[in-house]
Amino acid sequence: MGMRPKYKTKQREELLGYLERLPGVHMTAADVCDYLKEQGSTIGQSTVYRQLERLVDEGLVNKYIIDGNSPACFEYVGSQEPACSGCFHCKCEACGKLIHLHCDELAAIQEHLYMEHRFRLDPLRTVFYGLCEECQKSQGTV
Amino acid sequence: MGMRPKYKTKQREELLGYLERLPGVHMTAADVCDYLKEQGSTIGQSTVYRQLERLVDEGLVNKYIIDGNSPACFEYVGSQEPACSGCFHCKCEACGKLIHLHCDELAAIQEHLYMEHRFRLDPLRTVFYGLCEECQKSQGTV
DNA sequence: TTGCGTGCAAAGGTTTTGCATGGCA
DNA sequence: TGCCATGCAAAACCTTTGCACGCAA
To answer: With contact defined as beta carbons under 8 Å apart, do A37 and A43 qualify?
Structure first.
């Protein structure tokens, strides 16, 4: 987990306030920036990018990269602390749906990654990309 | 799967020849372009991008998008059916290092996600975030 | 000969950065 | 008061595109 900001600024409060009101909703940096400016904020785009990156660092926000060209998506997740052990996120690349999974088998790979590969997995920031059941059907991938 | 090229060009042969010689090795479009030019090729970067994209379409090459900013990585996989089965990527949140893992145990979760949760994992797009061994030590997380 | 593939340069779009200013503690 | 965070604009970066030319079939 990265460092928290030292100061509580108006811009950060505005930004965070907006995200918190829409937990689980995907928005781009531009979305956030446009909305806040419409609301009369004087926030600049560099601040939006800097704060979003920081919130990702703090684990309050997830960042999704769909492909290299389109803008990244951000989503408020809050501080679901340790209660969510064995909780993972799957994101459908086709419809964009985010699936929350509780699964001990998946929790086991966390253990395995650490024991065998000395890699300490961060489940809150790891997203499994793929195709959900519905999209497999509609794409004839089944 | 997309369309194959209609013509067999010198540039495509050069590019493909280089990739084939290094199966499983990650390289960026710039890597490929630089190498070929060093070898005396007159290939242009747009051709490199266009051919790489086409090879991905044909299933001969894998494309990895690690994060939105760094360049995409390409890797020759050939027409081996289960392309790069058991290949996963871990990214250290602290130092940014990318770790390339071949691990059957990890491959098993792919199967599990499909059988139990009907989610078809895309290993090419999925990156495990966490801390590498060195950074755990230097951060006193161990 | 046909028209696909190429090369160059420029555009495109997202994200980062330099630097002076302003505001939190 | 000290110095972190901000805003603006410009830069950086990877990738795509327009267009004329060359080359494979």
So the answer is: yes
Residues A94 and A132 in one domain: yes
pLDDT grade for B27, boundaries at 50, 70 and 90: very high
Say how many Å lie between the first and final Cα of chain A, rounded: 39
Cβ contact B67:A56 at 8 Å:
no
> Which residues of chain B make contact with A67, given a CB cutoff of 8 A?
65
Q: Which residues on chain A are in Cβ contact (under 8 Å) with B90?
A: 113, 117, 119, 121
Q: What is the pLDDT of residue B83?
A: 47
Q: Which of B103, B126, B141 sits opposite A129 (nearest CB)?
A: B126
B50 lies in the same domain as B93:
no
CA-derived radius of gyration, chain A: 17
Where in the sequence is the domain holding A14, given as residue range(s)? 1-82
